Amino acid sequence: MFTEPDDQSAWWYLQFLLNYIKNQITSYDNDAQCNSNTHYANDVIDGKEWFHLLLLKVIELSKSLLEIEETCKWPMITIVNTIDILFTIDETYRHDESMIEQRKEYLLKLIEIDHHHKNRYTYLSNI
After folding, report:
1. Which of 7, 55, 78, 105 shows the smallest number of beta carbons within 10 Å?
2. CA–CA separation, 105 vs 69, rounded Å?
3. What are the angstrom distances between the C-alpha of 117 and each of 23, 76, 83, 104, 121?
């Protein structure tokens, strides 16, 4: 199936799905901390690991699309948003200089190519 890389619908849906999964895992994680059932806690850990790998794969695939469509803003936005989700679910990424630098790099590119949303990207780069 083909979709135009600049078609925002698929990108918005991807972000919706990733945020939905993040919220579910966060909710289950909070429940697992309150629940003494180790089987339930192990399921949460497995879900977090799966989601972590999925997020890394989304970043990888978005980067590969950028090799073909260098000025398409949606893969860059997806990378930034996905890194932000990684920061939320895994504390170690908040201190990962490589991830922090990648995020800043894509926000700077977005400022250059998407002038209409320049202030938003500038704001996000300062967080």
Report:
1. 7
2. 17
3. 26, 13, 19, 15, 7
